[in-house]
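ARCHIVE CARD
Drawer: 12
Card no.: 0347
Subject: one protein chain, sequence and derived structure
Cross-reference: see card 0346
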Amino acid sequence: MMPTRHALGALLLDAGLAEEAEDVFRTDLGLKPGLIRACHHPDNIWALQGLDDCLKLRGADTERAYIAPRLAVARAWAEIEVAAACQCALKAARI
């Protein structure tokens, strides 16, 4: 089973809709209101990677510095290397 928000965010990002993708990742991480607390995934590597990708495109280096430690911890715990917000992302598949 694959979480839909990670796929949605990754596909939006791949389609060049970075602002919409960023909104999806922020919601998933609980950084913006909209979901009940039980649906927030504050340290999910897929959403953190997606948000980092969006911030990089936007040139938001200050905010990336805030996300970087959380992403580093998530990567340390991950069993696989995560290069995109979802395995379904077209650009990640071409890397």
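Annotation on reverse: The chain has five helices and no strands. The longest helix spans residues 61-77.
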